[in-house]
Amino acid sequence: MCSWITDSLTDRRQFVSLGTHVSDLQHISTGSPQGCVLSPLLFSLYTNGCTSGHQSVKLLKFADDTTLIGLISDGDESAYRGEIDRLVSWCSMNNLELNSLKTVEMIVDFRKDPAPLPPVILCDSPVTSAESFRFLGTTITKKLKWEQNIRSLTKKAQQRMYFLCFSSL
Predict the structure, then answer these.
(1) 53, burial (CB in 10 Å: exposed 0-12, middle 13-18, buried 19+)
(2) Whole-angstrom Cα distance, residue 10 to residue 70?
(3) Are the beta carbons of 127 and 103 closer than 8 angstroms?
(4) DSSP state of 53
(5) Quick one: which H or E segment has residue 77?
(6) How far is the C-alpha of 47 from the C-alpha of 158, rounded, in Å?
């Protein structure tokens, strides 16, 4: 099995076509083919060693998405910031590139007057602070309310119902 996977990833070539234009054939020496059934599994195996080193910070991975969830108590964010640094370092050592443009931070804080936290810096860029974000198909808001997720699901269901109604005519 391992030799079959190795053979499928070794000495690969690819080209890009757009309309009538075709690029030259290029040798590919890293990664796995996009759309390949094994790619998510191979990525999960490759990133298996990337774990959280602190009990107050959880590292959640699904396919090629990674989420850090940190509990900051008494304003001490050192464990959370440390885990971010560990993740960045692990990715660098394992030749994985983090996309700071796809990275967001969402702070959930129910205190009356929450203290502002300095922005997380990733790849020399501040990470965007979000009011909400999509996590595995679910919209999570910083107030942990369901309204935005329900609106999104309702809209998607209405679009599909509309399509079903008019495609059967």
Answers:
(1) exposed
(2) 39
(3) yes
(4) -
(5) none
(6) 38
Angle ∠(35,128,52) on CA atoms, nearest 5: 65
| Dihedral angle, C-alpha 143, 148, 153, 155, nearest 10 ° | 180
Compute the distance between CA of residue 75 and CA of residue 147 in angstroms, rounded to an integer: 29
Q: Tell me how far the alpha carbon of residue 64 is from its chain's centroid.
A: 6
Query: How many residues appear in the chain?
Result: 169
Rounded-to-integer distance, Cα 11 and Cα 135, Å: 36
Q: E strands within the chain?
A: 12-14, 17-18, 21-22, 26-28, 57-62, 65-70, 104-105, 121-122, 125-126, 128-129, 132-135, 138-141
If DSSP codes are grouped into helix, strand and coil, which group holds residue 96?
A: coil
Query: Is there a contact between 62 and 52 (Cβ–Cβ < 8 Å)?
Result: no
3-state secondary structure 110-154: CCCCCCCCCCCEECCEECEECCEEEECCEEEECCCCCHHHHHHHH
Query: pLDDT, tens digit, for every residue of 47-80?
Result: 999 999 899 999 998 888 889 998 888 878 889 9
One-letter amino acid identity for 10? T
The per-residue pLDDT for range 135-149, each reduced to its tens digit, is 989 999 999 999 999
